[in-house]
Task: structure prediction
Amino acid sequence: MGSEQNNSSTSCTNHHHVHQDSETSPLLLASPSTTDNELREAPSRGMISAAKQKGRLLLLLVAFLYGSLSVSLRAVYARPGPPAPSILSATRGWMSVLCLWPIAALQSPPVTNGSPSTEIYSKASFYWFAFELAVFNFGTQGLLNIGLVTTASARSAFFTQLSVIITPILTYCIGRVRGKQILVEKKVWFSCFVALLGLYILSSDKSGGSNSGSNESTHPSVGNNALHVFSFGDWCCLGSAFCWSYYIYRLSDWGGRYDETQTMLIKNIFMAILYTLWTVASYFYANECSSSGDSGGSFCLWEGWRDPISMVVLFYTAASSGALCDVLQQTAQSIVPAAESNVLLSLEPVFSALLAMILLTELPSAHELIGGAYIIGASLLSSN
Result:
């Protein structure tokens, strides 16, 4: 009898332990130190890593297309009766809108349906975001064009590519203002400085062509402590770098909230309007337009506007480095951080030099080869 009670108590005890284990096993499975949980998280980490790799490849493609832009525009400026920068920018802007419009018309609205107040707020924030991107993208190109009037091309390239350093600093500072601790990895900081060194080597190449003599006369030399005495053109180039850095930061911050094609369509419409206003102002204030009237076959801001080759090349730049790059860049930067994105995009002058060598038979100098090697190394370091 006692043994039966002991056996019964033992079986009850064992049953209690089994029942207790079955109750606690879900908690054990939920522990972050268990192998099963790591197996569950592994596919998620793998998907995130694969998405990041895809984003990096897209940014490399964007850098390549941006590199083809300077070569294409150089070909347009080499045609008879080249356009002024304002009307060239306006033409490319409206061409980009035409490229994006049919694609955006087939897609869903940029904001989701919800309550009336939420929908109004979402639409307002969407259009404000697109307008913000347009203003800073317009500022990037506009300030650079103004800076090139008094600043030599090599010096302006160094100033504008300071965005490689400005972007992680800007991201960190805005995060601190918002009360967020944004972590920028040490390898990204290091790759930023390596890329900046490569860009400096590229821009310090004296074998390349410089601006006109008037520009060189107003450009201070390095021997006279030029880094401590910035001209108005230098400050414009620095402003261009800041605008581009903020543009990249905003794409990484909010780029994943809205549809890429819809966002870039509205942004390009805003940009085309801004470029058109710039063209109108240029028409009234340009010396060429005030000194001579327009004939039926020419226009003071673009005498060769009937050249079909120039139009074809401009349409290519609008479709590739304009519309396509806008969509691909927003898609990639919704995954890849801003600082790393800027380092990858800094490969643009490398692709530009390669395309110039192939298409324009311009052989790269030793400075270009060394600087390009630094930039490629920085890009690989940040993506590793």
About this structure: Residues 15-34, 112-118, 208-228 have pLDDT under 50 and may be disordered.
